Amino acid sequence: MGDNELANLGGASAVRGEVEPLSEGTSTNPAAVYLAGLAPTGRRSMAAALRRVAQLCGYADWQLAPWTAMRFEHVQAIRSKLLEEGSKPATVNKTLAAIRGVLRAAWRMGQIDAEHYQRACDVDSVAGNRLPAGRAVTQGELAAIMRVCIEDETSAGSRDAAIIALAYGAGLRRAELSALTMDCIAEDEDQYTIRLTGKRQKERMLYLDNGCADALHAWLDVRGAEPGPLFYSGRRGGHLTAGQGMTPQAIRDVVVRRAEQAGVKDVSPHDLRRTFVSDLLDSGV
Q1: What's the whole-model pTM score?
Q2: Residue range(s) occupied by CATH 1.10.443.10 in the chain
Q3: To 5 degrees, how large is the angle CA 244–CA 247–CA 248?
Q4: If one looks up domain 139-282 in CATH, what number appears?
Q5: Residue 247, φ and ψ in degrees, nearest 5
Q6: What does the alpha-carbon distance between residue 138 and residue 266 come to, in Å, rounded to a whole number?
Q7: How confident is the model at residue 187 (pLDDT cuts 50, 70, 90)?
Q8: What is the rounded distance in angstroms from the CA atom of residue 54 to the CA atom of residue 17?
Q9: Less packed terminus of the chain by CB within 10 Å, N or C?
């Protein structure tokens, strides 16, 4: 039943594998409107989810799918298909949330009526949880990773030590680390203040001292006070490209590479953030 319903959404051309572009422009595509309202990190994730939905329906990408033709039976079939493929409950629910977001945009734009919107969105989320991936990093492992950075006398060594210190000492996500600029940083004697805009455009202030402040100070001595991204991207040999920032993926690569050099297995930026939260809980915060 699931495959038939998906084929019905795609139409005859979709069943044959052909793609017929929508006649509507991007500005009236509800998927584009929905994605435009998300933060950049969320936009990438939800665009990937919508791309998968479009492919299940016989279209090459989300820009080509006729979202206003989607009904309850189509959404239910997509849910069933993802579960059959072994997708995690969180992945299925994220995909359903993306579909609901697109249909909400279509309703707000007057492309579908309220009954169509409510019926199509009335698909149950998937119950169940999986254990989160990743782990907490021990103090010994963290010290070994920092030692590798400090022993690297190139500019990349100072940069990477500051990245790891902020990921652990301030609990920053890799997207937040890559988005930091010099405008976010303020120094007051031995303390640094970081103004950060996180998920859902929420601003927060971070106060750094002790080892985290020392690592940031050492990097700023190398980097200089020029405006622009806080962390510069690198080249071979530990050389950095002034003025060119790092992507979230590059931040992850730094953490993984330094952990491997230290002989520490299976560490990601989120593991450092998880350790930060665990340590806060252990201290009674």
Answers
A1: 0.60
A2: 139-282
A3: 150
A4: 1.10.443.10
A5: -85, 160
A6: 12
A7: confident
A8: 12
A9: C
